[in-house]
Amino acid sequence: MIILVNVFAILSAGLFFFKKISPLAFLVSSVLWFTLMIAFWFILPYSIYRKAATFKDGFKVSFEDQHLFLENDRGSKSWPWTAFSSLIESPHFFHLYFDSRSFFLIPKDAFEGDTVHDARKFLANKIMKKG
Predict the structure, then answer these.
(1) Got the DSSP string for 26-55?
(2) Rounded to 10 degrees, what is the CA torsion of 43, 48, 1, 11?
(3) Domain check: are 61 and 118 in the same one?
């Protein structure tokens, strides 16, 4: 949906530049684009995260030799490293994929200093090489 909205915004800007649409039409499409982007980036995430108790919990994640261990005040769960199919790293998270549709996020800001680099090497070794 976001891709479609951005394609619409680029298309309307191009049509306005080549004088195929009026300034009013471009203004309306720009206001629509800004409204949708604010809704997707700020309003929807805030309303979802504010209501869900899961996003208010504090979690502790431990990397152990045979499994990943997750715990909070209400319980714990562990997964063997073989349960993860792939690892993708984004600027702020490690994405540990179970399959093509489900994954587990570990925020990088949970690590201090060089421990992010150590965690990257450990995760790549465990997930890419399967245990």
Answers:
(1) HHHHHHHHHHHHHIIIIIHHHHHHHH-GGG
(2) 10
(3) yes
Task: List, for residues 8-44, the tens digit of each pLDDT value.
Answer: 889 989 999 999 999 998 898 889 888 988 988 889 8
On whether both 72 and 41 belong to a single domain, the answer is no
**CA-CA distance, 115 to 1, in Å (whole number)?**
37
Which SS3 state, helix, strand or coil, does residue 107 take?
A: strand
Residues 64 and 49 in one domain: no
Nearest of 124, 57, 54 to residue 95 by alpha carbon: 124
pLDDT band (50, 70, 90) for residue 55: low
CA-to-CA dists, residue 53 to 27, 47, 48, 81, angstroms: 40, 12, 10, 27
- When pLDDT is averaged across residues 66-76 and rounded to a whole number, the result is 87
Q: How far apart are CA 47 and CA 7, in angstroms?
A: 26
